[in-house]
Design a protein that fits this description.
This protein has a single domain, classed as Divalent-metal-dependent TIM barrel enzymes (TIM Barrel, Alpha-Beta Barrel). The protein has nine helices and ten strands. 40% of the residues lie in helices and 19% in strands. With 268 residues, it is an alpha/beta fold. It is globular. Strands 1-2-3-4-5-6-7-10 form an eight-stranded parallel β-barrel, surrounded by seven helices. Strand 3, helix 4 and strand 4 form a beta-alpha-beta unit. The longest helix has 21 residues.
Length: 268
């Protein structure tokens, strides 16, 4: 299933927008674009909501016919327990996370112990935990960890853009992670020369105009060709859009990139 995530509304959610978009507003925009899935990922206001606000947001998503996923950072037991509770509120079947959080940097041995302790609860609830590929942990280490634990509730959230920061090649990351992928973050990316030829900027690009070989990802991971006994792999649209000089231009560009990415995914 193709979905949108909070990173697709990064600037429209921000205080720099003239009228910042609420979470329910993002749900409504998602429905307007003909999309049935939304991933609430790294969205700080979610953890500030009280029980009534959470139930109201979940009800709004259900009324709009949206499937919800949730996302956080870290694998500390209390964090993953909290997001399993949030998943229950939203009827979410997937929690996306990362090994490290801003306040928690476990060793891989510690991370494995934590995950082994919490995953039975995820399995019992029918919720998958997808750990994202990113620069702080090599894809080889991440996939070895997931293979060692060997839980049906544990997989990879594949984001080939993140790993470039540790000089991993996106295509190789796709191939290494493919057997474990349960979620995909979809965005294009490119390098651009800095002024004065003193280095490069690595940032987002309009889908289909950057360096991401998405056809290779589709061919390798085959997220849309799963059998009845295999886990669904959703494709979540997000962006790395730099600030465009003013709020109006930035939000307009963000919306254009979202439409372009949806059109690209629907055409492939």
């Amino acid at each position: 299933m193709i979905g949108l995530g909070t990173y697709a509304f990064l600037w429209e959610h921000s205080e720099r927008a003239s009228q910042p978009l609420s979470l329910v507003g993002a749900f409504e925009r998602t429905r307007e674009l003909g999309v049935d899935l939304f991933q609430i990922c790294d969205y700080a206001p979610l953890e500030l909501m009280d029980g009534i606000e959470l139930r109201d947001a979940a009800a709004a998503a259900r009324d709009l016919g949206l499937t919800i996923e949730v996302g956080t950072k870290g694998v500390a037991p209390e964090r993953l327990t909290r997001f399993l509770e949030l998943a229950a509120v939203f009827d979410a079947r997937l929690v996306r996370s990362m090994i490290y959080a801003p306040d928690s940097r476990p060793t891989l041995v510690e991370a494995e112990a934590w995950l082994r302790g919490i995953l039975p609860a995820y399995e019992a609830a029918g919720v998958s935990l997808a750990l994202e590929t990113y620069e702080q942990v090599s894809t080889a280490d991440l996939t070895r960890l997931i293979a060692a634990i060997d839980s049906p509730a544990l997989g990879v959230c594949l984001d080939p853009a993140n790993v470039v920061a540790r000089l991993e090649l996106p295509r190789e990351t796709v191939e290494l992670a493919a057997p474990y992928v349960t979620n995909i973050h979809v965005k294009d990316f490119a390098f651009a020369r800095q002024p004065g030829w003193v280095g490069f900027t690595f940032t987002g690009a309009r889908m289909g105009e950057g360096l991401h070989d998405y056809p290779h990802l589709l061919e390798t991971v085959r997220p849309r060709e799963r059998g009845v006994d295999e886990r669904e792999v959703n494709e979540i649209v997000e962006h790395w859009l730099p600030w465009q000089g003013d709020a109006e231009t930035t939000v307009r560009t963000e919306r254009d990139w979202t439409r372009a990415t949806l059109e690209y995914l629907r055409s492939t």
